[in-house]
Write a structure and sequence with these properties.
Length: 158
């Protein structure tokens, strides 16, 4: 069978690209340990209030972890618990959140914290608050008639 020269070039190019992509993905997954954002932590949405850590929402200092604080949120129509929180400037914080009822958003305006809270799942995000000031946490998933009222305040203080 005769294969045209250009076809051979394209075949070689395609094969080489495939090898490059698979190598990059392979290194990223198996050597760097990257994986898709997990929604693997599950929770019974009817028992959020009785489930650790959601039985004590708010900011908690932790020892011996990669982060200094854990900030636990429970979302429900149409509010977040806690409604207001103060975080020390420069603190590395793991945000842990879930919802008791429907899907809610979890966006902290002016930062790159933006999660979806789904009933039955725990959403997590590790971040450092490096800028003093007041931040607005708001819901960006339409969740009902009070959706626009759903917000909470984060204050980063010295
Ligand atoms: Cu909660 Cu929109």
């Amino acid at each position: 069978m005769h294969i045209h020269k250009y076809e051979k070039i394209w075949l070689a190019f395609g094969l080489a690209s495939l090898i490059v992509f698979l190598t990059v993905i392979g290194i990223s997954a198996f050597y760097l340990g990257n994986k898709p954002p997990s929604c693997l932590t599950t929770i019974n949405p009817e028992k959020v209030d009785q489930t650790v850590p959601f039985n004590h929402p708010g900011l908690h200092k932790v020892e011996g972890k990669e982060w200094d604080y854990e900030l636990v949120y429970v979302a429900q129509t149409f509010s977040y618990t806690p409604a207001e929180v103060k975080i020390p400037l420069g603190a590395k914080v793991k945000v842990i959140a879930t919802t008791k009822d429907v899907v809610h958003g979890f966006e902290v305006a002016g930062t790159n914290i933006n999660m979806m809270l789904e009933p039955g799942y725990v959403s997590e995000y590790v971040t450092t608050f490096n800028k003093e000031g007041e931040y607005l946490l708001l819901c960006n998933e339409y969740c009902g008639t009070g959706h626009h009222l759903m917000s909470s305040k984060i204050e980063v203080v010295k």
